[in-house]
Amino acid sequence: MLANLTAASFAPHKGTEFRIHVNDSIILLAELVDVSVRGQPVPRAVWDTNPEPQRERFSIVLRGPLDQPLAQQMYDVEHATIGLIEGLFLVPVGINQDGRYYEAVFS
Q1: Burial class (CB in 10 A: 0-12, 13-18, 19+), 32
Q2: Distance of alpha carbon 70 from alpha carbon 100, whole angstroms
Q3: Can you say whether the dihedral through the CA atoms of 59, 39, 46, 55 is positive or negative?
Q4: Angle at the Cα of 72 (from 68 to 77), degrees rounded to 5?
Q5: What is the average pLDDT score of the chain?
Q6: Which pLDDT does position 44 carry in this prediction?
Q7: Which CATH fold topology does 2-39+54-106 show?
Q8: What is the 8-class DSSP label of residue 53?
Q9: At 10, phi and psi to the nearest 5?
Q10: Secondary structure E strands in the chain
Q11: Among 104, 83, 81, 86, residue whose Cα is nearest residue 33
Q12: Angle at the Cα of 5 (from 86 to 60), degrees rounded to 5?
């Protein structure tokens, strides 16, 4: 699933709810607040013979509640339209009165 995702997969879902599976019994609700393309793919090294095209580099930012901080780690993240994204690495990147912000980078 991760390999097939692009910025265009997420862009129509800005402002919608994502469910972050913290563990078997805790699911944190978060909102997609940003989708950013990060420029051209990094050129392959001369020794990299992978025939697959380079993936688009982009990031997403999710806003979760203030009272439930998440650690930097991999989470299963679910969206009603996109489906289940297994093993998405989320990094805390900020906090304000609106919530805590987490970024996932795809490259």
Answers
A1: buried
A2: 9
A3: positive
A4: 70
A5: 90
A6: 58
A7: Thrombin, subunit H (2.40.10)
A8: P
A9: -100, -35
A10: 17-21, 27-37, 58-64, 73-79, 83-96, 99-106
A11: 104
A12: 80
pLDDT in tens, 27-42: 999 999 999 998 766 5
Which tokens belong to 45? Answer: 């090294």
Domain residue ranges in the chain: 2-39+54-106
Question: For a pLDDT cut of 70, what percent of the chain falls above it?
Answer: 84
- pLDDT tens for residues 81-101? 999 999 999 999 999 999 999
Task: Give the DSSP letter of residue 26.
Answer: -
Residue 76's pLDDT is 98
Q: d(Cα 15, Cα 32) in Å, to the nearest integer? A: 5
